[in-house]
Amino acid sequence: MTIAIFKAQRDVLIRPLQVICGIVEKRNTLPVLSNVLISTGSDEVRFRSTDLELELMAREAIQTGQSATELLVNARKLLEVVRAMPDAELTLSTSEKHLFVRAQGSRIQLQLANPDDYPLAARNGDDSEPVSVKAGELKRLLHSIHFAMGDNDLRYFLNGALLITGPRLTAVAIDGHRLATASIPLVGDAKHSEIIVPRKAVLELIRLLPDDESSVCVETSMRYAKFEFANVSFACKLIEGRYPDYTRVIPTSFEAEFSVDRLQLLACLQRAVILTNERFRSIRCVADDGKLTVFASNADNEESVEAIQIDYLGANVELSFNIRYLLDVASTLKTDRLNFRLSPGNLSALVSAQDMGDFKYVVMALRG
Fold first, then answer.
1. Does the pLDDT of residue 65 top 70, yes or no?
2. What are the residue boundaries of the DNA polymerase III beta sliding clamp C-terminal domain, all occurrences included (predicted)?
3. Of 117, 206, 256, 293, which is least packed with CB atoms within 10 Å of its CB?
4. Is residue 123 part of a domain?
């Protein structure tokens, strides 16, 4: 005997399943984490996934006409099944051990798991402090700094982004060789707080956030952060630890500066990276009156030399960089020109953008 749960158009079901599958690993040490928990009410269906560090819930307004029901089924299989169905209304029903997906003569049967085995939802607690930001601004903020986050760094607190509230929302990323920071306005007042959001959570937010003026409610506590927007609720465990004082890394005095067309610089770097050493990726940059010359070479005695125009007046300056660090900023920012200011002794460069006044990117120069 089967019991009908609800009916919905295929595309209505694809949307929430695509959202929650973003954090479902293809291979899990705990098989239960490969599943999606589907909860029904009279006028809403909720889809929840978790990897124990991140949690996603997507809601869809679907009339079920049934009392509250919970079922647990493999998330990726269900998404693939729904995608493969005809573009029509789908009927989902269950027996004691199976979920059935039907449409226009097709019927696919999936194994159900015990919903009691699924981890409980994250709870923020009474110490949470909600703030509000615009979705598109938060998406661009995180995108502008994400490339500078640590990745499997032994200093675990660098494997994420620092978010600081009050009076603006500031994001900071450091990997030990470079720093990126930017800020956006908050909607209303907010108390000062600092949290470290894991790298995977930052990347997932960039994927999920809409690029529009809709509101995002950000709720934080000692252990969790929760982001509510549209029909999505996203929660993550925070990284515990003390983030470095990033302001000490940003140089305040300079001995040379220039501005360069971003797309010209990007094209130049994309050509130069072809000939750099696979391990070190080092390039030499020489700035003088009106031009920046980029030199790249490798152990096979191959070489690339290219000069591009810059707005620069001053003494000649020569220093080396990891080309990947320059490529990251040139390819990520959507701006016409990049400004470079060189610290005394050519220890680092501070990169900013004329139309992104709050963005700062510090990249350390290579020695020797």
1. no
2. 248-366
3. 117
4. no
**Domain limit, last residue, from 181, 214, 247:** 247
Among 8-22, 200-214, 335-349, which stretch is predicted with the lowest mean pLDDT? Answer: 335-349
Mean of pLDDT over the chain = 91
**Domains held by the chain: number:** 3
Q: Kindly state the average pLDDT of the residues 265-282.
A: 91
SS3 labels along the chain: CCEEEEEEEHHHHHHHHHHHHHHCCCCCCCHHHHEEEEEECCCCEEEEEECCCEEEEEEECCCCCCCCEEEEEEHHHHHHHHHHCCCCEEEEEECCCEEEEEECCEEEEEEEECHHHCCCCCCCCCCCEEEEEEHHHHHHHHHHHHHHCCCCCCCHHHCEEEEEECCEEEEEEECCCEEEEEEEECECCCCCEEEEEEHHHHHHHHHHCCCCCCEEEEEECCCEEEEEECCEEEEEECCCCCCCCHHHCCCCCCCEEEEEEHHHHHHHHHHHHHHCCCCCCEEEEEEECCEEEEEEECCCCCEEEEEEEEECCCCCEEEEEEHHHHHHHHHHCCCCEEEEEECHHHCEEEEEECCEEEEEEEEECECC
Same domain, 240 and 261: no
- Residue 245: the pLDDT is 94
Structural domain span for residue 112: 3-117
pLDDT, tens digit, for every residue of 229-250?
Answer: 999 999 999 999 999 999 999 9
User: What CATH code is carried by the domain that includes residue 342?
Assistant: 3.10.150.10
> Does 122 fall in a domain?
no
